[in-house]
Hints:
The complex is a heterodimer. Chain A is α/β, with parallel strands linked by helices.
Amino acid sequence: xxxxxxxxxxxxxxxxxxxxxxxxxFLADLGAEVIKVEGLQFLGADTRLGGPxxxxxxxxxxxxxxxxxxxxxxxxxxxxxxxxxxxxxxxGLEALRRLVLVSDVIVExxxxxxMKRFNMDYPNLRQLRPDIIMLxxxxxxxxxxxxxxxxxxAALEPTHGTGAFMGYRGGPPNKFANSYTDFLMSWxxxxxxxxxxxxxxxxxxxxxxxxxxxxxxxxxxxxGLLDYAFNGRTERRLGNRHEYYAPHNTYPxxxxxxxxxxxxxxxxxxxxxxxxxxxxxxxxDPRFADPVERWKHQDELDDIIAAWTSGLDHYEAAYRLQAAxxxxxxxxxxxxxxxxxxxxxxxxxxxIEHPPETGVGRRPQLGRPWRFSSSQVPxxxxxxxxxxxxxxxxxxxxGFTQADMGRMKEQNIIGNxxxxxxxxxxxxxxxxxxxxxxxxxxxxxxxRLGIDGASTA
Amino acid sequence: MSEAEPIGGxxxxxxxxxxxxxVSAPFCTRLLADYGADVIKVEPPEGDLARRTGPFVGDEPHxxxxxxxxxxxxxxxGVTLNLRAETGRGLLHKLAGWADVLVENxxxxxxxxxxxxxxxxxxxxxxxxxTSISNFGQTGPYRDWKATDLISxxxxxxxxxxxxxxxxxxxxxxxxxxxxxxxxxxAATMVAIYHRxxxxxxxxxxxxxxxxxxxxxxxxxxxxxxxxxxxxxxxxKGVPFEEIMPCQDGYIVPSAQTQTFETxxxxxxxxxxxxxxxxxxxxxxxxxxxxxxxxLKALAHWKRYDIFxxxxxxxxxxxxxxxxxxxxxxxxxxxxxxxxxxxxxVAGEAEYPGELVHMTEGSYxxxxxxxxxxxxxxxxxxRVLGLCHEKLSRFRGLSII
Lengths: 457, 401
């Protein structure tokens, strides 16, 4: 077994919700020891409890140990250790101070005033440990007039510009799905922390990283900004069409809400498309003779292509087009992604075994977008049980005594079950379908995924 | 390896070859360059594909005026090299001996023809980290499929969740899947370089555009894997929060995830919102249509920035829809010195978006504009590889450089 790149690196992770927990999950995949610091009173801020759709729970049943059963929580917190602390009481702060002394990296995503209030902002941490690397993630960064505004991807994503640039043709701004900005920041944070670790290895120096979701998000849209700076051109919304290429769109396929994406980028692909459509004569049609003509006549092209795709399964149409060299792909839903033959062949999904007492069982989970030839990342452990590492970390690593532990237990600082916080109620599946929050429901999803061993893929 | 003095950028001293074209690999290496790495961009004699991709400065197609190219290649030196010729590949492998990192995004089936396959590069330099970005990865049944940003958004399932439920799935503009693959390649490259400190060995890093985007599907994949539910695009009606809503002079995103719902009722001046029907998140979803009507009515009296600031001052996390002109005027980005002036000898001067993240030491620096085609041929082949003047002109004559 080869060593993992981050073996020996200890990360104390105070972060909540999505972007930063996901970031540190990848550090754990890569071998770092990630200590997730949770608060028994404050779990509502994290994904253990979740919102109305913040589950999902196994078969939509929260269950007795509901805070150990949330599917999103496990994806975001796999492979970590969990301790519980309350920074508002002296014992909690003392534990954090001791953690800093033995950590390489501290990650937090409180609003800027919080760590200052605890005297645990970078200048203070640096006094404790001069080579500490600290990463702070906020909505707008620690300086500037919006510094104290809260950060949440659902609101920030359109604020940093994606909304303006996407939408149906002639329609209002729209949103990129999945809390897009959160993930931009997860990836950005990995890049930043790895750069900082390299810098520390070469110079012995730590540093502080200010990850601002707003500014970071804008940085991914530079082409659009520079088009304005040079040409004064503002955003335009083209649906799935392209500035230059045509045909370039999504087309309906056989079945409910089934689509295929097709993008023709040159003459060779165009001629191949005409062949696949069974219309070789279209290759010579003057209306479609070159990219400019095709772009001008794309309404007609879209009709012709849709007439062909609508009778076909989305995979079948894609296979035929790709075989002829035309860029195309089915628009997969989450079921399609989890059973996609390519993703399965790549071994993309991790099959996580959950501890029996939680009743979660074995579930597939998103893996990583990169493979390293020198290290195979082992299948991660699930997200940690709440406070499972309290005695290991607090007593063995940080030197708290049995008496200290007793006191902290009495003060409700340490424990293994949430105190307060809203317990989310699962909305019945039929209701979710009726409200269009779910497109579909497969009672036989376990068979389709091969959860119980028999894989369909 | 352990001097106590600060050095320039956090990555200064790191030597990188950018043998990529278009967006993903150039964005990856630009990030490395922004934080101090010495990046040499290796282009075919006709130039990076991005040079022929619009929009162009002044809408004039020109190899030195492509806006994507100008944005993606600042802080790099640039050389030309014909990898279709054996001599060209020989020079590349010499450069590989100089470098710590090589980033490429050739189609996997073509990498060998261009001397970019890992086995060949490893022989040239066993300590080299080779990062390959491709649409579907270096293995698997779709390895040789063709894709653009649109196709990757479709196959990664990102698109199925974007747009309106009663319309077709919607793609983002501005090649986002390629930027996401680019930042992932930067992250993974740094992991491999860090690993090299311990092992002394280089390695091959395989980055997939489809998988980079698929990793964003946390909620949707967990919903299926845990309960068999297929998540979808936003319903046409009945979702007034965490979605884009019109106001008097534009659009905003109201959010109900922080503070109490009463704070929102007070902000909007709507007593009706205190109805117990709306008191819980579940209630707001089940009574969404009625709620949306009320919210729309209230927002019609607000200007976008007024409500954005007022809500945020009350610790409600509201968003505001902004376009490029808004960013250049944004007092917050200005206060953080986000924009940097760059003067390019052919394209002219403009303010470029700058720092991705701020570091207290060794942070982002803008040092130079994107290179002209072959601008640093003499400097790189002469000083880095030590080729004599005569050889250089012979290679020029043979269209190798």
